[in-house]
Design goal:
Helices cover about 10% and strands about 40% of the residues. The termini are far apart.
């Protein structure tokens, strides 16, 4: 998905995010299932301000019990993109006639996937001895 510099004005423009990232793997093997996000952008002098917001869902496993789960995650990230220069302390810059948004969208997803994902707050995990999912049934390992 790209935006053309000559079409970016001081007024905020909004586009639905349409990026073929479904099925792509991210942090800890999480697979992207769907995206429901918008990209907002406007010009502030030579700086291009980009905001990626909405929700995305991933398929992953619970960090305690290893059950497959789908998680919907909100995101709201802003990026400030400057003209290419010799400055070394700029994270985002542009050159040419357009800005490709795919990397900003990907970064928004990566930055918002939680480090620890649980199927529920009270997930009991798995038995460290026999591997039984303690959410499904009680094992006999603790009584020995």
């Amino acid at each position: 998905m790209e935006i053309f510099l000559n079409e970016i004005t001081e007024s905020t423009a909004t586009e639905n995010v349409v990026v073929p990232l479904a099925g792509e793997e991210f942090n800890h093997g999480a697979k992207l299932k769907s995206i429901d996000m918008v990209a907002e952008y406007y010009r502030a002098g030579e700086t291009i301000c980009i905001r990626i917001k909405g929700d995305f869902s991933i398929i992953t496993v619970c960090d305690r019990c290893l059950a497959d789960i789908e998680v919907i995650i909100p995101t709201d990230e802003s990026f400030y993109v400057f003209p290419e220069s010799d400055a070394t302390d700029i994270d985002y810059f542009y050159s040419g006639e357009s800005i490709e948004l795919d990397d900003f969208i990907r970064e928004s997803i990566i930055m918002n996937i939680p480090e620890k994902i649980l199927c529920s707050e009270d997930c009991k995990g798995v038995c460290s001895r026999c591997g039984t999912n303690l959410n499904d049934k009680k094992c006999n390992c603790m009584s020995t």
